[in-house]
TrEMBL record:
This is SDR family NAD(P)-dependent oxidoreductase. It comes from Glycomyces albidus. Coiled coil: none annotated. Belongs to the short-chain dehydrogenases/reductases (SDR) family. GO terms for molecular function: oxidoreductase activity, acting on the CH-OH group of donors, NAD or NADP as acceptor. Keywords: NADP, Oxidoreductase.
Protein backbone atom coordinates (compact mmCIF):
# COMPACT_ATOMS: atom_id res chain seq x y z
CA UNK A 1 0.00 0.00 0.00
CA UNK A 2 1.22 3.44 -0.87
CA UNK A 3 0.38 6.04 1.78
CA UNK A 4 1.00 8.88 -0.72
CA UNK A 5 -1.83 7.35 -2.66
CA UNK A 6 -4.24 8.25 0.15
CA UNK A 7 -3.81 12.01 0.24
CA UNK A 8 -6.45 13.83 -1.77
CA UNK A 9 -8.47 10.62 -2.12
CA UNK A 10 -12.19 10.88 -1.41
CA UNK A 11 -13.53 7.72 0.23
CA UNK A 12 -17.06 6.67 1.17
CA UNK A 13 -17.43 3.85 3.69
CA UNK A 14 -20.89 2.46 4.37
CA UNK A 15 -21.76 1.42 7.92
CA UNK A 16 -18.81 3.46 9.14
CA UNK A 17 -20.21 4.58 12.48
CA UNK A 18 -18.76 1.52 14.25
CA UNK A 19 -16.80 -1.69 13.86
CA UNK A 20 -14.63 -2.43 10.85
CA UNK A 21 -16.16 0.40 8.81
CA UNK A 22 -15.24 2.96 11.42
CA UNK A 23 -11.70 1.59 11.79
CA UNK A 24 -11.35 1.71 8.00
CA UNK A 25 -12.48 5.34 7.95
CA UNK A 26 -10.05 6.19 10.75
CA UNK A 27 -7.15 4.52 8.97
CA UNK A 28 -7.89 6.15 5.63
CA UNK A 29 -8.22 9.54 7.32
CA UNK A 30 -4.94 9.02 9.20
CA UNK A 31 -3.28 8.40 5.83
CA UNK A 32 -4.62 11.69 4.52
CA UNK A 33 -7.80 10.70 2.72
CA UNK A 34 -11.01 12.66 3.01
CA UNK A 35 -13.54 10.22 4.40
CA UNK A 36 -17.29 10.26 4.08
CA UNK A 37 -18.90 8.28 6.88
CA UNK A 38 -22.04 6.53 5.66
CA UNK A 39 -24.38 5.79 8.57
CA UNK A 40 -28.05 4.97 8.62
CA UNK A 41 -28.42 7.08 11.76
CA UNK A 42 -26.95 10.45 10.82
CA UNK A 43 -26.13 11.39 14.42
CA UNK A 44 -24.01 8.24 14.83
CA UNK A 45 -22.18 9.09 11.63
CA UNK A 46 -21.70 12.70 12.78
CA UNK A 47 -20.19 11.45 16.05
CA UNK A 48 -17.70 9.23 14.20
CA UNK A 49 -16.79 12.04 11.79
CA UNK A 50 -16.31 14.50 14.66
CA UNK A 51 -14.01 12.05 16.43
CA UNK A 52 -11.89 11.69 13.27
CA UNK A 53 -11.70 15.47 12.86
CA UNK A 54 -10.59 15.79 16.49
CA UNK A 55 -7.70 13.47 15.63
CA UNK A 56 -6.72 15.72 12.74
CA UNK A 57 -8.48 13.86 9.94
CA UNK A 58 -10.84 15.16 7.28
CA UNK A 59 -14.25 13.54 7.72
CA UNK A 60 -17.91 14.29 7.24
CA UNK A 61 -21.01 12.16 7.56
CA UNK A 62 -23.87 11.34 5.22
CA UNK A 63 -27.12 9.62 6.14
CA UNK A 64 -27.07 6.35 4.21
CA UNK A 65 -29.24 3.30 4.75
CA UNK A 66 -28.18 0.90 2.01
CA UNK A 67 -31.74 -0.50 1.82
CA UNK A 68 -33.31 2.95 1.35
CA UNK A 69 -32.83 4.16 -2.23
CA UNK A 70 -33.76 7.74 -1.32
CA UNK A 71 -30.88 8.01 1.18
CA UNK A 72 -28.51 6.26 -1.24
CA UNK A 73 -29.34 8.80 -3.96
CA UNK A 74 -29.17 11.71 -1.54
CA UNK A 75 -25.73 10.59 -0.37
CA UNK A 76 -24.52 10.43 -3.99
CA UNK A 77 -25.84 13.95 -4.60
CA UNK A 78 -24.13 15.28 -1.49
CA UNK A 79 -20.79 13.76 -2.54
CA UNK A 80 -21.23 15.08 -6.09
CA UNK A 81 -21.95 18.60 -4.86
CA UNK A 82 -19.12 18.68 -2.37
CA UNK A 83 -16.35 16.79 -4.17
CA UNK A 84 -17.49 16.11 -7.73
CA UNK A 85 -16.06 12.60 -7.64
CA UNK A 86 -15.40 9.53 -5.50
CA UNK A 87 -12.11 7.63 -5.48
CA UNK A 88 -12.90 4.84 -3.04
CA UNK A 89 -16.14 3.06 -2.17
CA UNK A 90 -16.02 0.58 0.70
CA UNK A 91 -19.22 -1.46 0.82
CA UNK A 92 -18.89 -2.40 4.47
CA UNK A 93 -22.44 -2.25 5.90
CA UNK A 94 -23.62 -5.73 6.72
CA UNK A 95 -25.82 -7.77 9.03
CA UNK A 96 -25.78 -11.39 10.13
CA UNK A 97 -29.51 -11.96 10.45
CA UNK A 98 -28.94 -13.28 13.96
CA UNK A 99 -28.75 -10.04 15.86
CA UNK A 100 -25.44 -9.81 17.61
CA UNK A 101 -25.16 -13.53 18.34
CA UNK A 102 -21.92 -15.48 18.21
CA UNK A 103 -21.83 -17.74 15.11
CA UNK A 104 -22.44 -20.91 17.15
CA UNK A 105 -25.58 -19.36 18.66
CA UNK A 106 -27.09 -18.26 15.35
CA UNK A 107 -29.79 -20.94 15.40
CA UNK A 108 -32.18 -18.84 13.35
CA UNK A 109 -29.98 -19.53 10.34
CA UNK A 110 -30.51 -23.32 10.37
CA UNK A 111 -31.88 -23.98 6.86
CA UNK A 112 -34.89 -26.08 7.86
CA UNK A 113 -35.96 -23.66 10.57
CA UNK A 114 -35.17 -20.29 9.07
CA UNK A 115 -37.62 -17.44 8.92
CA UNK A 116 -37.62 -16.48 5.23
CA UNK A 117 -38.04 -12.83 6.22
CA UNK A 118 -34.60 -13.00 7.86
CA UNK A 119 -33.02 -14.37 4.69
CA UNK A 120 -34.63 -11.57 2.68
CA UNK A 121 -33.48 -8.93 5.17
CA UNK A 122 -29.90 -10.19 5.07
CA UNK A 123 -29.83 -10.24 1.27
CA UNK A 124 -31.36 -6.73 1.20
CA UNK A 125 -28.43 -5.33 3.15
CA UNK A 126 -25.50 -7.57 2.19
CA UNK A 127 -26.23 -8.00 -1.53
CA UNK A 128 -28.93 -5.71 -2.91
CA UNK A 129 -27.68 -2.80 -0.79
CA UNK A 130 -24.21 -3.18 -2.30
CA UNK A 131 -25.61 -3.08 -5.83
CA UNK A 132 -27.77 -0.04 -4.99
CA UNK A 133 -24.89 1.92 -3.46
CA UNK A 134 -22.39 0.89 -6.13
CA UNK A 135 -24.67 1.93 -8.99
CA UNK A 136 -25.49 5.25 -7.33
CA UNK A 137 -21.77 5.98 -6.80
CA UNK A 138 -20.49 4.69 -10.15
CA UNK A 139 -20.81 8.01 -12.00
CA UNK A 140 -18.68 9.57 -9.25
CA UNK A 141 -16.16 6.70 -9.32
CA UNK A 142 -15.90 7.10 -13.09
CA UNK A 143 -14.98 10.74 -12.50
CA UNK A 144 -11.94 9.54 -10.48
CA UNK A 145 -8.61 8.73 -12.10
CA UNK A 146 -8.29 5.65 -9.85
CA UNK A 147 -11.67 4.34 -8.73
CA UNK A 148 -11.54 1.49 -6.22
CA UNK A 149 -14.38 -0.57 -4.77
CA UNK A 150 -13.87 -2.87 -1.78
CA UNK A 151 -16.66 -5.21 -0.67
CA UNK A 152 -16.60 -6.69 2.85
CA UNK A 153 -17.12 -10.40 2.44
CA UNK A 154 -16.30 -13.31 4.76
CA UNK A 155 -14.51 -16.65 4.95
CA UNK A 156 -18.09 -17.93 5.37
CA UNK A 157 -18.72 -16.84 1.75
CA UNK A 158 -16.45 -19.59 0.44
CA UNK A 159 -18.47 -22.46 -1.05
CA UNK A 160 -15.27 -24.46 -1.12
CA UNK A 161 -14.85 -24.03 2.64
CA UNK A 162 -18.44 -24.62 3.70
CA UNK A 163 -18.97 -27.52 1.28
CA UNK A 164 -16.22 -29.47 3.01
CA UNK A 165 -17.96 -31.80 5.52
CA UNK A 166 -14.70 -32.01 7.50
CA UNK A 167 -14.10 -28.27 7.39
CA UNK A 168 -14.69 -25.78 10.23
CA UNK A 169 -17.71 -24.17 8.59
CA UNK A 170 -19.79 -27.31 7.98
CA UNK A 171 -20.96 -27.30 11.59
CA UNK A 172 -21.96 -23.64 11.52
CA UNK A 173 -25.33 -23.42 9.79
CA UNK A 174 -25.87 -20.15 8.03
CA UNK A 175 -28.56 -20.15 5.38
CA UNK A 176 -28.82 -16.36 5.31
CA UNK A 177 -25.41 -14.82 6.01
CA UNK A 178 -23.09 -17.28 4.22
CA UNK A 179 -25.11 -17.42 0.98
CA UNK A 180 -25.47 -13.62 1.03
CA UNK A 181 -21.70 -13.24 1.13
CA UNK A 182 -21.27 -15.93 -1.55
CA UNK A 183 -23.63 -13.86 -3.70
CA UNK A 184 -21.68 -10.74 -2.83
CA UNK A 185 -18.52 -12.44 -4.11
CA UNK A 186 -20.30 -13.17 -7.39
CA UNK A 187 -21.49 -9.56 -7.56
CA UNK A 188 -17.89 -8.43 -6.98
CA UNK A 189 -16.65 -10.45 -9.94
CA UNK A 190 -19.47 -9.14 -12.13
CA UNK A 191 -18.55 -5.51 -11.40
CA UNK A 192 -14.84 -6.26 -11.79
CA UNK A 193 -15.51 -7.69 -15.24
CA UNK A 194 -17.62 -4.72 -16.31
CA UNK A 195 -15.25 -2.08 -14.97
CA UNK A 196 -11.87 -3.67 -15.79
CA UNK A 197 -11.57 -1.71 -19.03
CA UNK A 198 -12.19 1.57 -17.21
CA UNK A 199 -9.42 1.10 -14.64
CA UNK A 200 -11.83 0.73 -11.71
CA UNK A 201 -10.62 -2.13 -9.48
CA UNK A 202 -13.26 -4.12 -7.57
CA UNK A 203 -12.29 -6.59 -4.86
CA UNK A 204 -13.82 -8.54 -1.99
CA UNK A 205 -11.98 -8.92 1.31
CA UNK A 206 -12.70 -11.28 4.18
CA UNK A 207 -11.50 -9.51 7.34
CA UNK A 208 -11.23 -12.62 9.53
CA UNK A 209 -12.97 -13.10 12.87
CA UNK A 210 -13.13 -9.58 14.25
CA UNK A 211 -14.24 -8.31 17.65
CA UNK A 212 -17.36 -6.29 16.72
CA UNK A 213 -21.05 -6.23 17.56
CA UNK A 214 -22.03 -8.39 14.56
CA UNK A 215 -20.75 -11.51 16.35
CA UNK A 216 -21.50 -10.40 19.92
CA UNK A 217 -17.88 -9.21 20.27
CA UNK A 218 -16.54 -12.77 20.16
CA UNK A 219 -13.97 -12.10 17.43
CA UNK A 220 -10.24 -12.40 17.99
CA UNK A 221 -8.93 -9.66 15.70
CA UNK A 222 -9.34 -5.94 16.34
CA UNK A 223 -11.24 -3.75 13.88
CA UNK A 224 -7.97 -1.88 13.34
CA UNK A 225 -6.24 -5.10 12.22
CA UNK A 226 -9.10 -5.83 9.83
CA UNK A 227 -9.03 -2.29 8.47
CA UNK A 228 -5.40 -2.67 7.34
CA UNK A 229 -6.39 -5.10 4.61
CA UNK A 230 -9.47 -3.15 3.59
CA UNK A 231 -7.35 -0.04 3.20
CA UNK A 232 -4.67 -1.89 1.22
CA UNK A 233 -7.31 -2.79 -1.36
CA UNK A 234 -8.85 0.70 -1.25
CA UNK A 235 -5.50 2.24 -2.18
CA UNK A 236 -4.33 -0.25 -4.80
CA UNK A 237 -2.11 1.05 -7.55
CA UNK A 238 -3.37 0.85 -11.11
CA UNK A 239 -1.59 -2.48 -11.65
CA UNK A 240 -3.39 -4.05 -8.66
CA UNK A 241 -5.73 -7.03 -8.80
CA UNK A 242 -9.42 -6.88 -9.56
CA UNK A 243 -12.18 -9.43 -9.07
CA UNK A 244 -10.34 -11.11 -6.19
CA UNK A 245 -11.46 -12.81 -2.96
CA UNK A 246 -8.77 -11.68 -0.53
CA UNK A 247 -7.81 -12.27 3.09
CA UNK A 248 -4.88 -11.37 5.29
CA UNK A 249 -3.41 -14.77 4.40
CA UNK A 250 -3.78 -14.33 0.66
CA UNK A 251 -6.48 -15.36 -1.80
CA UNK A 252 -9.35 -17.53 -0.57
CA UNK A 253 -11.01 -20.32 -2.56
CA UNK A 254 -14.36 -19.40 -4.09
N1 LIG B 1 -16.75 -8.98 12.48
C1 LIG B 1 -16.41 -10.06 11.78
O1 LIG B 1 -15.87 -11.04 12.31
C2 LIG B 1 -16.68 -10.10 10.30
C3 LIG B 1 -16.26 -11.23 9.60
C4 LIG B 1 -16.49 -11.29 8.25
C5 LIG B 1 -17.11 -10.24 7.60
N2 LIG B 1 -17.53 -9.15 8.31
C6 LIG B 1 -18.19 -8.08 7.56
O2 LIG B 1 -17.63 -6.83 7.86
C7 LIG B 1 -18.61 -5.81 7.69
C8 LIG B 1 -18.63 -4.91 8.90
O3 LIG B 1 -19.07 -5.66 10.02
P1 LIG B 1 -18.63 -5.37 11.51
O4 LIG B 1 -17.96 -6.59 12.00
O5 LIG B 1 -17.92 -4.08 11.63
O6 LIG B 1 -20.08 -5.29 12.21
P2 LIG B 1 -20.83 -4.20 13.07
O7 LIG B 1 -19.97 -3.64 14.14
O8 LIG B 1 -22.12 -4.85 13.43
O9 LIG B 1 -21.08 -3.01 12.03
C9 LIG B 1 -22.01 -3.12 10.99
C10 LIG B 1 -22.24 -1.76 10.41
O10 LIG B 1 -23.19 -1.89 9.33
C11 LIG B 1 -24.20 -0.92 9.53
N3 LIG B 1 -25.44 -1.29 8.89
C12 LIG B 1 -26.24 -2.36 9.11
N4 LIG B 1 -27.33 -2.31 8.32
C13 LIG B 1 -27.20 -1.19 7.57
C14 LIG B 1 -27.99 -0.57 6.57
N5 LIG B 1 -29.15 -1.09 6.18
N6 LIG B 1 -27.55 0.58 6.00
C15 LIG B 1 -26.38 1.12 6.40
N7 LIG B 1 -25.61 0.61 7.35
C16 LIG B 1 -26.03 -0.53 7.93
C17 LIG B 1 -24.33 -0.80 11.04
O11 LIG B 1 -25.01 0.40 11.37
P3 LIG B 1 -25.85 0.57 12.76
O12 LIG B 1 -24.85 0.97 13.80
O13 LIG B 1 -26.84 1.65 12.43
O14 LIG B 1 -26.50 -0.75 13.06
C18 LIG B 1 -22.86 -0.78 11.42
O15 LIG B 1 -22.31 0.51 11.21
C19 LIG B 1 -19.94 -6.53 7.44
O16 LIG B 1 -20.23 -6.54 6.06
C20 LIG B 1 -19.67 -7.94 7.93
O17 LIG B 1 -20.48 -8.90 7.31
C21 LIG B 1 -17.33 -9.05 9.65
Amino acid sequence: MNADNASSRIALITGANRGIGRATAERLAALGATVVIGARHRERGEAAAASIRESGGDARAVALDVTDQATVQQAAEEIEERYGRLDVLVNNAGISGSGNAAPQDAVDRVPSAVDLAVVREVFEVNVFGVIAVTNAMLPLLRASDAGRIVNLTSHAASLTLYADPQGPLAGLPSVAYSPSKTALNAVTVQYANELRGEGILVNAVAPGYVDTEINGNTGILTPEQAAEHVVDLALLGGDGPTGGFHSADGPLPW
